[in-house]
Amino acid sequence: MSPFFVMSLLFGLTFSQTASLCAPSEYIIHVEKRECAYCLAINTTICAGFCMTRDSNGKKLLLKSALSQNVCTYKEMLYQTALIPGCPHHTIPYYSYPVAVSCKCGKCNTDYSDCVHEKVRTNYCTKPQKLCTM
């Protein structure tokens, strides 16, 4: 093999490890309120994907700064508001939700992210479903 090919291959492997697969991804949020007649299915984008992390098996031997458990999280986001149909007049029928504009690998910020992966599926409707059209 030529030296140029080997260097290109090594560069590609290195770059693919540092350039994570963390990016905005389409997602459907199901929202319902007890007082309202319908469940609203909202199409949005969330941050999802793979981020490089370091193995923390040696955490007793390493400084805390050397341990890195990065997650795919928001770099830029905006909020949109949807109207939940079928709500009585005394109920606030609005729901605000985040829309990922861009993502990054970094520490999980509990101010706007759920940093725990739940195994129980909770994103579903128990009432008749309406699709949010923005």
UniProtKB/TrEMBL annotation:
Its main location: secreted. GO terms for cellular component: cytoplasm; extracellular space. This is Thyrotropin subunit beta. Keywords: Disulfide bond, Glycoprotein, Hormone, Secreted, Signal. One of its GO terms (biological process) is G protein-coupled receptor signaling pathway. GO terms for molecular function: hormone activity. The gene is Tshb. SMART domains: GHB (SM00068). Gene3D superfamilies: Cystine-knot cytokines. Heterodimer of a common alpha chain and a unique beta chain which confers biological specificity to thyrotropin, lutropin, follitropin and gonadotropin. PROSITE patterns: GLYCO_HORMONE_BETA_1, GLYCO_HORMONE_BETA_2. Residues 21-125 form the Glycoprotein hormone subunit beta domain. It comes from Podilymbus podiceps (Pied-billed grebe). Coiled coil: none annotated. Residues 1-16 form the signal peptide. Belongs to the glycoprotein hormones subunit beta family. The keyword Disulfide bond applies. It is found in: Secreted.
